[in-house]
DNA sequence: AACCGTATCAACCGCGTCGTG
DNA sequence: TCACGACGCGGTTGATACGGT
């Protein structure tokens, strides 16, 4: 362990102090508890180890799948990810990711050429109002010593008034899209999938159903129900990890 | 048994954010 | 508006555990 390990006596003092005075006011906790620890250490020990209902032991397959989906959505915002995994701490999730899952990502990095540039329409931006906007992005794939990163810069707002000459099975028009959504990835996130998703097409039907066709993909995508509207926006249901609503239908 | 390399994870550190005066 | 302190987060460290030789 890096640093000085906590003793059982220190744990007892901290636990009793927080049970008496409650969480928060961490700058007062060391003095109140009679601990020769800084407030940061006290807070960390409580949140990562002493707090009730902390789940110990290995992550289940369901938890791992959830982490992968949430990491795709949130990135390295470990506390946000952990808040959706009952009993797990941000430190636990971060450690698990760094020890196990990041390597799975790294193992697939060779599938994209370094410095490759691609331009695609995506649904990717998420703001605090749970709104995801459609944009056209230019991806510049850079290979560092350890991983591939995309320095994606939004270059224009999506224009769905420019249908591509592809015909859907129902006779409608297919529009090229990329859906950066959790449920698209029922396997570990990897760069190969990102590349393949460029070959995804969508068609919005009159009854509000969006048909999604996939090229060169070997996993299923659930049917997405949408409503007609004027906004080029959609929302996430963060508990169900699913789309909720309206999406660029004014363009068809 | 001893050694070595790797994996694990608790703890520390630095920095950004926020509230307050 | 600015300065300051507290909080919270993510990156990193390093001690220990573990497995292989």
Describe the protein in words.
This protein has seven helices and ten strands. The chain is an alpha+beta fold and 252 residues long. The structure holds a DNA duplex (21 and 21 nucleotides).
Summarize this structure as a short list of keywords or feature phrases:
252 residues, alpha+beta, 3 domains, 29% helix, 22% strand, DNA-binding
> Any idea what the radius of gyration is?
23 Å
Q: Uncertain regions: pLDDT < 50 for 5+ in a row?
A: 106-252
Number of helices: 7
What is the helix content? 25-40%
Order of helices and strands: HHHHHHEEEEEHEEEEE
Strands, total number: 10
User: How does the helix and strand content classify structurally?
Assistant: alpha+beta
Distance between termini?
59 Å
Main sheet: strands, sense, barrel: 10 strands, mixed
What's the shape?
elongated
- The protein's oligomeric status is single chain
Q: What fraction of residues sit in β-strands?
A: 15-25%
Overall mean pLDDT score?
A: 53
Q: In total, how many domains does the architecture comprise?
A: 3
Give a short summary of the structure.
This protein has 7 helices and 10 strands. It has helices spanning 8-21, 29-33, 39-50, 61-74, 78-82, 90-107, 191-196; strands at 117-126, 131-143, 148-150, 153-157, 175-179, 200-204, 209-214, 224-225, 233-237, 242-243.
Topology:
Layout: H1 8-21, H2 29-33, H3 39-50, H4 61-74, H5 78-82, H6 90-107, E1 117-126, E2 131-143, E3 148-150, E4 153-157, E5 175-179, H7 191-196, E6 200-204, E7 209-214, E8 224-225, E9 233-237, E10 242-243
The structure holds a DNA duplex (21 and 21 nucleotides).
């Amino acid at each position: 362990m890096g640093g000085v390990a906590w003793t059982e006596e220190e744990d007892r003092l901290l636990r009793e102090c927080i049970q008496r005075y409650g969480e928060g006011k961490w700058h007062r906790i060391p003095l109140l508890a009679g601990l020769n620890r800084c407030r940061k250490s006290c807070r960390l020990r409580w949140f990562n180890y002493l707090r009730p209902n902390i789940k110990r032991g290995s992550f289940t397959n369901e938890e791992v799948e959830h982490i992968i989906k949430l990491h795709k959505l949130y990135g390295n915002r470990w506390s946000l990810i952990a808040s959706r995994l009952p009993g797990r701490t941000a430190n636990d999730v971060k450690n698990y990711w760094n020890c196990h899952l990041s390597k799975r990502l790294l193992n697939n990095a060779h599938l994209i050429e370094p410095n490759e540039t691609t331009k695609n329409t995506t649904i990717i931006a998420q703001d605090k109002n749970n709104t995801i906007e459609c944009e056209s992005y230019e991806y510049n794939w850079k290979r560092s010593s350890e991983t591939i990163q995309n320095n994606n810069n939004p270059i224009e707002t999506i224009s769905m008034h420019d249908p591509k000459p592809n015909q859907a099975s129902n006779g409608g028009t297919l529009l090229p899209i990329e859906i950066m959504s959790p449920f698209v990835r029922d396997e570990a996130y990897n760069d190969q999938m990102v590349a393949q998703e460029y070959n995804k097409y969508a068609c919005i039907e009159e009854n509000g159903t969006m048909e999604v066709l996939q090229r060169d993909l070997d996993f299923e995508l659930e049917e997405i129900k949408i409503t007609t509207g004027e906004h080029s926006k959609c929302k996430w249901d963060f508990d169900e990890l699913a789309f909720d609503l309206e999406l660029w239908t004014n363009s068809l």
